[in-house]
Amino acid sequence: MGLLLPLTGRNAALGHSMLNAAQLALFEQTDPRVEFLPRDTRGTEAGAADAARAALAEGATVLIGPLTLGETAAAAGPARAAGVPMLSFTSDEGQAGQGVWVLGVTPTQVARRLASAAVAAGARRIGLLGSDDEFGRRLASALGAVLAEAGLPAPLVMLVRTGSEPAQTGRDFAARATAGGGVDALILSQAGLAARLAAQGLAGAGPTPRLYGTHLWSGDNQMAQEPALLGAGFAGPDPAVRQAFDARFQEAFGERPARLAGTAYDAAALAARAARDGGRALPVGEAFQGADGPIRLLPQGFLGRGLAILEIRREGAVVREPAPIPGAAGS
């Protein structure tokens, strides 16, 4: 199996953490017939293409990685030409298909899980407030598609330019929502201070809808310091599952893994199953417990990912709804 990672350059530390995670997955598969071929992408598109060609020349039957959108696009050409499947770490769904699977947390996964949770809590009109950036636009598009599938009204979307004052955008959204008949639930696509200030602005403008956030809130203990966010929910990995992975990694390597190391673990475990079975056929359709929760490879290069809904409380985030098995209701 070819493992395409940035082992030198500015992302070298991340690359080595992901390499260790992949090695942990291989160790836990306990199959001596499966072997990694780590190749350095140098954190560049040209390096990713070179790394893919080198791994393929040495007989790799599955490629794991690379890291970014650009690197994935560059490495996909050699992989597809060789008929070898690739498990990429990017979250750009545009890269999926023709033998390439996207394993990063995608806007569609997040939108589907949040919409399911909001509707289950009684919401019928859902809003989205966030930055007018690539993630915000993709999340808005995915949310619109998910709600249309469910036969619900289109979301009330407000994406603001970089540099806008978050508290004021919260007040502006509240005014727009009131004029349009209100929303029952609101997704804040921003994270950190921007999300906290937006929640303050919303709270100061009158009754606040049920608030939700994205996986970008995971691990941010400061969110619980904002009274306007207490009770808010967000989509993310089940902490107990992730903590178990972190503990195994710590025991094996003496340090905590990088956040993205879990994706490398998942990819390596899936690829090892394919290699163990003697071919290039990935276990499409098979549910699998990954480092961050349940996953399932789907046709056309997509990944089903079970995300929990966590609730912000003063003592921190707690699981409100467990992560469903991908393909089940709420996933």
- The pLDDT mean sits at 93
Report the CATH topology name of the largest domain: Rossmann fold
Helix share bin: 25-40%
Structural class: alpha/beta
**Share of β-strand residues:** 15-25%
Number of helices: 9
Q: Helix and strand string, N-terminal first?
A: EHEHEHEEHEHEHEHEEHHEEEEE
CATH architecture of the largest domain: 3-Layer(aba) Sandwich
Number of beta strands: 15
Describe this structure in words.
- It is built from nine helices and 15 strands.
- The chain is of the alpha/beta class.
- 40% of the residues lie in helices and 19% in strands.
- The protein has two domains: 169 residues, Response regulator (Rossmann fold), CATH 3.40.50; 146 residues, Response regulator (Rossmann fold, 3-Layer(aba) Sandwich), CATH 3.40.50.2300.
- The longest helix has 18 residues.
- The mean pLDDT is 93.
- Helix 4 crosses helix 5.
- It has a seven-stranded mixed sheet with strand order 7-6-8-9-10-14-15, with helices on both faces. A five-stranded parallel sheet has the order 2-1-3-4-5, with helices on both faces.
